[in-house]
Automatic annotation (TrEMBL):
Descriptive protein name: Transmembrane protein 234
GO BP term, example: pronephric glomerulus development
UniProt keyword Mitochondrion present: no
The entry's keywords: Membrane, Signal, Transmembrane, Transmembrane helix
Pfam families: TMEM234 (PF10639)
Membrane topology annotation: Multi-pass membrane protein
Organism: Takifugu rubripes (Japanese pufferfish)
TM segment ranges: 54-72, 79-98, 110-129
Subcellular location: Membrane
GO cellular component, one term: membrane
Length: 144
């Protein structure tokens, strides 16, 4: 049985992951201009560029906090429920945030995909909620 807290945790994960993806993309703009002579210097220069750039660093930290919430939620939620719900909702959040930031949306096919994704998530949530009243569960357990 999935609790409201678990659902809210997965929603938080999805928002933190999905909404930060387009911001990370924007924050990383300009990294292609960083050039060094060897691979190690190039890597260090790119890491320095990203981590001294607050437009990248803040979304990165928010994204990673979503990962912390996700791993905590996995410890209490069924894996077969948590993984598809978190990933599908984060995909939707990425699309919507990208659209708000002026990115191409993908047209009618993207809308159909989002609707089908929401239908799938809804079915997943409905199938994971135990319809029996908790008080009735206790009575049933006492009888058996």
């Amino acid at each position: 049985m999935v609790t409201v807290a678990e659902l809210l945790s997965l929603l938080l994960v999805s928002v933190l992951w999905g909404c930060t993806n387009p911001l990370l993309k924007r924050g990383a703009q300009g990294i292609e201009k960083v050039t060094k002579t060897n691979k190690v210097s190039q890597l260090l220069a790119e890491v320095k560029f990203l981590f001294l750039n607050f437009k990248y660093l803040i979304p990165f930290l928010l994204n990673q906090s979503g990962s912390l919430v996700y791993y905590y939620t996995l410890s209490t939620t069924e894996l077969s429920f948590a993984v598809p719900v978190a990933n599908a909702l984060s995909f939707l959040c990425t699309l919507l945030t990208g659209k708000l930031l002026g990115e191409e949306f993908g047209g009618k096919k993207a809308v159909v995909g989002m609707v089908l994704t929401m239908v799938g998530i809804t079915l997943c949530v409905i199938s994971s909620i135990d319809e029996q009243d908790p008080r009735e569960q206790n009575v049933t357990q006492i009888i058996h």
